[in-house]
Amino acid sequence: MTMNRYDKAFKEEAVRLSDEIGPRKAA
Questions:
Q1: Which residues contact 19 (CB under 8 A, 6 or more apart)?
Q2: pLDDT digits (tens, 9 = 90+) for 5-27
């Protein structure tokens, strides 16, 4: 359960980072 919660937080952080980096690469 702890691992699952950590994995979920990690994925959310990865999505947030890719959302920030994506537009910068496109521009």
A1: none
A2: 989 999 999 999 988 887 777 66
Element spanning 27, H or E: none
Return the SS3 of 1.
coil
Question: How far apart (Å, rounded) are the C-alpha atoms in residues 7 and 9?
Answer: 5
CA 2 to CA 23: how far, in whole Å?
Answer: 33
Which residue do the tokens 């521009």 mark?
27
Q: Provide the whole-model pTM.
A: 0.50
